[in-house]
Design a protein that fits this description.
Helix content: over 70%
Oligomer: single chain
Number of strands: 0
Structural class: mainly alpha
Number of helices: 11
Number of domains: 1
C-alpha cells in the first residue's frame, strides 16, 4: 500500500484522531484477542528472558524490542486486510529486515544510556532515591530536598527522551512496510510525530490511561490486553498518517505524470 518514496511527507490529521486510533486498535484486537494476547505474553517473555542474561541481557532485550513491534504490526495488517491471523506473522521482524530493525533498537539503547549518563551527571541517582523511599530512613523533609535536587535532571531527561521516542515511534513500521533505511525511518518518524503533535498527545494520554487501568489488574494480566491494543493503535496511526496519505496522493501523482 505504501512506498518509501512518498513516506517523507507524512499526512497531518486532526487531534481527535489520537483517541480514534486507540478505538481502532481495540477493534482490531477483538478480531482475535486470544492469539494476540498469547503472542504478546510469549514474545514479551522472550524479551524479558534475554534481559536476564548477565552483562549483555539488557542490551539484547532493547535490540530485540523493535522485532516484537514489527511482528505485531504485521499481524494487525493481516487482520486489517481480512486475512487469517497465524503465529508466523508475529515473526515478520525476524524473517524480514532484521538488521534495520535492530539498528532502531541500538539507537534506543544508546540514546537511553546517554540520557541516563547526563541525568546521573546532574546529580540524579534513581537507585538512591528508591532506596531512601523504601527503607523509610529519610524524613519527609529529606525526601523533599532530594526530589528538589533531582528535579532539574528529571526535566532534562524528559526533554531529551521526548525526541528519542518521537524518532523511534514509527520507525519499525516505516522499515517493515515501506522499506525505509534506519536513518530515514528515524527522521521521518520524528517529522511525523512533530507534525501531528496534537493527535499524538491525545493518543499518549489515552494509551497512558489504558496502561494505568491495566496495571490495576492483579499479576499484570491487564497488560495482556492493553499492550496488544497499544500495538493496534500504533498500526492505526501509521495507516492514518502514512498509508492513507499514500492512497490519497496516488491519483494526484498519476494526473501530474500524465500532464
Amino acid at each position: 500500500m505504501n512506498t518509501a518514496s512518498n513516506q517523507d511527507v507524512p499526512r497531518k490529521v486532526a487531534a481527535s484522531q489520537g483517541f480514534q486510533w486507540v478505538v481502532a486498535g481495540f477493534r482490531l484486537y477483538r478480531k482475535n484477542p486470544l492469539l494476540l494476547s498469547a503472542a504478546f505474553g510469549l514474545l514479551f517473555g522472550v524479551v524479558m528472558a534475554l534481559s536476564l542474561i548477565p552483562v549483555v541481557g539488557g542490551s539484547l532485550s532493547e535490540l530485540a524490542s523493535p522485532l516484537m513491534v514489527a511482528g505485531f504490526l504485521a499481524a494487525y495488517r493481516a487482520l486489517d486486510e481480512g486475512r487469517e491471523l497465524e503465529l508466523p506473522q508475529f515473526l515478520a521482524g525476524v524473517q524480514g529486515p532484521v538488521i534495520p530493525l535492530m539498528a532502531v533498537g541500538a539507537v534506543q539503547l544508546l540514546g537511553t544510556l546517554l540520557i541516563g549518563k547526563i541525568m546521573l551527571g546532574m546529580g540524579f541517582d534513581p537507585q538512591a532515591v528508591m532506596a531512601a523511599a523504601q527503607g523509610g530512613k529519610a524524613s519527609p523533609a529529606e525526601m523533599q530536598a532530594m526530589m528538589n535536587q533531582a528535579m532539574p535532571a528529571v526535566l532534562t531527561g524528559l526533554a531529551l527522551f521526548t525526541p528519542l521516542i518521537m524518532a523511534t515511534w514509527f520507525a519499525p513500521a516505516l522499515i517493515l512496510f515501506g522499506g525505509a533505511r534506519p536513518v530515514t525511518a528515524l527522521g521521518v518518524s520524528l517529522k511525523a510525530v512533530a507534525k501531528n503533535w496534537a493527535a499524538m498527545l491525545v493518543n499518549s494520554i489515552a494509551l497512558g490511561l489504558l496502561l494505568f487501568l491495566a496495571a490495576l489488574v492483579p499479576l499484570l494480566l491487564g497488560l495482556l490486553v492493553a499492550m496488544p491494543v497499544l500495538f493496534g493503535s500504533l498500526y492505526a496511526s501509521y495507516q492514518a498518517i502514512f498509508a492513507v496519505w499514500a492512497d490519497e496522493a496516488a491519483p494526484a501523482q498519476a494526473g501530474d505524470n500524465l500532464a
